[in-house]
Design brief:
By secondary structure, this protein is an alpha/beta fold. Helix content is about 45%, strand content about 20%. Strands 1, 2, 3, 4, 5, 6, 7 and 8 form an 8-stranded mixed beta sheet that branches. Bound molecules: S-adenosylmethionine (SAM).
């Protein structure tokens, strides 16, 4: 990616905050959080394995959204450990806080924080985790250096990010939509959801930020949807930050065409009556020297 100007980064930051903190986004994640958590459970499991967590650890989870994987981590580190779950705005983590209360978890707190300026003292965590968030960090190096600063020496960072755009999870929905409407082209100067698809890219960024023992792994993880294809379409059209505004502009007839073609494409991934999509996810871990 070419170096974006500071003005472009600032513009992207505002756009990101607007996308992720607006009422429609928060309402959609509130509505579908259970199904999303089940669908992506394999990615959570793989990230937790990568993070090598133990009881008693102090963990910072970045871009926690509605609490995945922060709530699982709170269970693993137990009452002698602690989790700090962070996100750009109050909306998404407000649900994470409600879920923590329902699960009787008292070793977790919630804080609004952008990954590039973490409001925590140096060396205050044993581990930093982030699931499906690092692709959005506007100034990635600044965010990684912040992660390094708040980790204690020997502490571990573990990230899960999306692999290629050309994977069924994307082609069955966004890919179909792109045949009917011109989707906004990603700005080549700015971060993109698939920015770490190229093998070794995230690893190189972590090494550039001064991390050691950096590892990167691409895994294909089956994601099982516990509901009908119709429900999957509804969830996609409400949750997807990129697709929601595009779908809203389509005429009912065009929208119905997209819907029908998406459902036909999804049929190919139905196994024993359930939709199972293979998710290509990149996992990276690194140690603070
Ligand atoms: C796809 S959601 C992932 C949420 C959760 N970790 C999960 O896996 O379900 C992306 C989250 O990243 C957050 N986010 C985006 N950019 C961020 C940044 N620069 N700093 C912190 N959080 C950010 C958004 O607010 C959103 O909640």
């Amino acid at each position: 990616m070419p170096n974006p100007t500071p003005e472009k980064i600032e513009q992207f930051r505002k756009h990101l905050k607007n996308d992720w903190t607006r009422d429609e986004t928060v309402a959609a994640w509130r509505k579908w959080h259970k199904q999303i958590a089940e669908f992506t459970a394999g990615a959570t499991e793989a990230l937790l394995k990568e993070a090598c967590l133990r009881p008693g650890m102090r963990v910072l989870d970045l871009a926690s959204g509605v609490g995945d994987p922060a709530l699982h981590i709170a269970q693993i580190v137990g009452p002698s450990g602690h989790v700090t779950a962070t996100d750009l705005g109050p909306g998404m983590i407000s649900l994470a806080a409600e879920l923590a209360a329902q699960q009787d978890l008292h070793n977790i707190d919630f804080k609004e924080a952008a990954a590039e300026s973490l409001p925590f003292p140096d060396a205050s965590f044993d581990a930093v985790t982030c699931r499906f968030g690092a692709m959005f960090f506007p100034d990635l190096q600044r965010a990684l250096v912040e992660c390094k600063r708040v980790l204690r020496p020997g502490g571990r960072l573990s990230f899960a990010v999306w692999g290629r755009r050309e994977q069924p999870f994307i082609s069955t929905t966004h890919g179909v939509l792109a045949k009917y409407v011109e989707m906004p082209k990603p700005d080549p100067d700015l971060p993109d959801v698939f920015r770490f698809a190229e093998h070794g890219k995230l690893q190189a960024e972590l090494e550039a930020a001064g991390f050691q023992n950096v590892k990167e792994n691409l895994l294909t993880i089956p994601a099982r949807w516990e509901g009908s294809l119709e429900l999957y379409w509804q969830e996609f059209s409400e949750v997807s930050v990129a697709a929601r505004p595009v779908l809203a502009q389509l005429s009912p007839a065009r929208r119905s065409d997209v819907h029908d073609e998406v459902l036909i494409g999804l049929q190919k991934f139905v196994q024993d009556g359930h939709l199972v999509l293979p998710l290509e996810v990149v996992f990276a871990s690194a140690i603070r020297p």
